[in-house]
Amino acid sequence: MPATPLPPPAPADVAAASLAPADLAPAALDREAGYALLAELGGPVAAETLGGLDALAPGFPDWIVTSLFGGTYQRPGLALRDRQIANLAALTALGGVEPQLADHVRNSLRIGLTREEITEVIVHLAPYVGVPKALAGLRVATTTFAAASAGTGAAGTGTEDAA
């Protein structure tokens, strides 16, 4: 089946504002709030991660923090605890994102979720995402819990690779 052709690009004289419907609510992005929340969630590891990532992909970490932590996380309707539970579930379901899952396990502990609650979120997913993904999520949680108990933060979890 042939691909549907893309529409031609807008002429250069078309104002960007005219491309968005007038009744769209503007997206709120608060860069300072994003960095404050990331500091609360990630602690010192977050700064190390961002610096390393910025060396590889300049500007990308700032975009992540501003759009995600300063945008999506700032929306009303869900408490931070609920957002972290959703993150644990989504990352476990995705699989193959162990560094990010470890970050969110650690962040969940930091904001007050218990090890039992984190474990139950992952166990609850088994019939929905499959036992292998749930087991992989539990391995990440176990490693992250052990690092937290040893006072080594994220050591051994690979979290230094992801924001």
What are the key terms here?
163 residues; disordered C terminus; single chain; globular
Query: Total helix count?
Result: 7
Order of helices and strands: HHHHHHH
Oligomer: single chain
Q: Return the average pLDDT rounded to an integer.
A: 87
Helix content: 55-70%
Describe this structure in words.
The longest helix has 20 residues, at 131-150. Helix 1 (31-42) crosses helix 3 (60-69) and helix 5 (98-110) packs across helix 7. Residues 154-163 have low confidence and may be disordered. With 163 residues, the protein is mostly helical. The chain has helices spanning 31-42, 44-56, 60-69, 80-94, 98-110, 115-129, 131-150. Helix content is 60%, strand content 0%.
In short:
The chain has 163 residues and is mainly alpha-helical. Helix content is 60%, strand content 0%.
Map the helices and strands:
Elements: H1 31-42, H2 44-56, H3 60-69, H4 80-94, H5 98-110, H6 115-129, H7 131-150
Helix pairs in contact: 1-2, 1-3, 4-5, 4-6, 4-7, 5-7, 6-7
